[in-house]
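Journal club prep, shared notes

We agreed each person brings one worked example of a sequence with its structure written out as tokens. Mine is Peptidase M23. I'm keeping it raw so we can talk through how to read the token line rather than staring at a rendered picture. Sequence first:
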Amino acid sequence: MSRDKQAGKFAKPDNREYTLMLVPHQGEAVVKIRIPVKAIKYSVATVCVVTILMTGAIINYRHTVKTANADKSELKHLREVNSSQNEQIEQLAGKTAKLQQDMTRLNVLDSEIRKILNSDELKASRSGVTRPNLPGHDGQGGPVIQAQTSVIGSASDTLQDVANVREKILNSDELKASRSGAIRPTSSGHDGQGGPAIHAQASEIGSALDTLQNVAEMREKSLAELKLALIELNAQLAVTPSIWPNDDGVVTSRFGWRQSPWGMGSDFHPGIDIANDYGSPVVAAADGEVIYSGWIGGYGKAVEIRHGHGINTIYGHNSELAVSVGQYVKKGQLIAYMGSTGNSTGPHVHYEVRVNDTAVNPANFL
Ligand SMILES: [Zn+2]
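Then the structure, token by token:
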């Protein structure tokens, strides 16, 4: 080996070389390999750089693997939590959907009941009860109006109950916590701790929904019963003589014993007399069939209507009749014009209600 020295040539490139001689022992030619010092320097530098890079890569790889393992574990946990929550959400969604259907049915029932409550029969009955100008009728309309008020009260109470329970559940701490919890990002250190709490909240919401469901079902049943009762009441009211045959007349004689208008002691008056202008309308007090339209002795020109359940009404002293026998009339329909035919002292309608052929006080129905 030889070594060239070129000291003092700072700017000159290093052209030194090593010669590697391979001397075979079998007398063959010597093989000389010349290696520039520059090449050795580059090689050493390259090896150093590669070593540093590889060391960095290995450290980075190990860190990455460690992080990936931690992430994998957390991901597995999150997937489990997610899956469990999805299941619970599906269950809650199912319950909510069922509840929604129940609420829809309740709303339909509610509007049906309100429709019945707003029917002409019920309105007429209510207005009839509050009419003030019949002496002695105090308290007689009571039961009917009381029943209606109670039905209206029950229906609105029922809906209020459902609304209250729903409000309570929606405002419950559990639901609030659950709602905020659902969108809260999960921290990496909470492994296994969030699950049970969420599960408990979901379970409480589920139980609250079950309660609400039961309440809704009970209310639906109750409202359905109310609806049936109202339909029956409505039908009954339609054929009950509950409105006045002349709506703005004045009661001049009531039912019962009275001083005779003919000045001959006292007599029993089997109806009520309502006076108004000659020719003012006389209307049917309830739905029914006209069974008589013509002259009846002292009643003059009269109409008799059969309403069913043994109830008939008679309207006397008319000037003109507007219906004929066999005709079906509705409550409030014009049947005659007021007059003073028969035994009468002035234009009025003698209104009589008979139950099984016995005259009863018409005020009992008004
Ligand atoms: Zn009379």
